[in-house]
Design goal:
The protein is of the alpha+beta class and 243 residues long. Helices cover 68% and strands 7% of the residues. The chain contains 8 helices and 4 strands. The radius of gyration is 23 Å and the shape is elongated.
Length: 243
């Protein structure tokens, strides 16, 4: 899938580079010799370029809107994390051998734990009464995402979505990346870390967090798809040692 997306992205890019070099060369300033366009093809090309540019502007506007929301999240309704939470975070960061700087804080603006940031990552934890084993599970999960550079990969695909907004493969890639990154994170936490939670405790907590998010989701199909994804993740973890 990634190769297919790359093909959609790179082929038009190389095409434009070749044409620019031909047009700007000294002997071809007034005449293109590599491609011969009829008036009809030239008109269609202009229309398609205009449509692509409109989609690009719309995508950039949506990206700035999301970026504004992220920046707002960093400064509003944020509380410093407790010392016990910071110490647990530092221990897990050292265990996972994460060299990147990672901050942690409490926030009233999130309903589930999340990681935000490019160079400096920040783990946002909702202001809620979590048990000690639940805090450990969510920190292992989010910090494993940091170790696997999932946020950076998703940001890259979002950038592809802005420039290739017409390409359905990019949206399929984002869905597949989201699904497999969560599964890979589950596998790493359960098999490669010192997390003390059993598989039952791990997914009971995951289902509990998903039920909280359902109150913010719109549409029955969206909620059903989220629960179906959790079931698929649980099945992959359960059968992984048998494969």
């Amino acid at each position: 899938m990634l190769l297919l997306v790359a093909a959609f992205y790179l082929i038009p890019f190389f095409y434009l580079v070749i044409r620019a070099l031909i047009i700007l060369s000294e002997r071809n300033l007034k005449k293109e010799i590599l491609y011969l366009w009829t008036p009809r093809i030239a008109e269609i090309r202009t229309i398609l370029a205009f449509v692509w540019l409109c989609g690009l502007i719309w995508g950039i506007q949506g990206g700035f809107h999301k970026l504004k929301g992220m920046l707002k999240l960093r400064v509003m309704n944020v509380l410093p994390a407790e010392n016990e939470l910071i110490q647990l975070k530092n221990r897990i960061v050292e265990e996972l051998n994460i060299h990147q700087r990672v901050e942690i804080c409490r926030s009233y603006s999130v309903i589930s734990p999340m990681v935000i940031g490019v160079w400096k990552k920040t783990v946002y934890i909702p202001v809620a009464d979590y048990k000690q084993n639940e805090i450990e599970i969510l920190l292992y999960h989010e910090l494993t995402h940091v170790k696997q550079h999932i946020t950076g990969l998703k940001n890259f695909v979002v950038l592809l979505q802005v420039f290739q907004w017409f390409n359905p493969c990019v949206y399929v890639l984002m869905g597949a990346l989201d699904e497999w990154s969560e599964t890979l994170c589950d596998l790493s936490v359960y098999y490669d870390t010192k997390c003390n939670a059993t598989i039952k405790e791990y997914f009971e907590f995951a289902i509990q967090e998903a039920e909280k998010e359902q109150t913010m989701l719109s549409g029955f199909l969206t909620k059903l798809q989220r629960l179906k994804g959790l079931s698929a993740r649980f099945e992959k973890i359960r059968t992984y040692s048998k494969e």
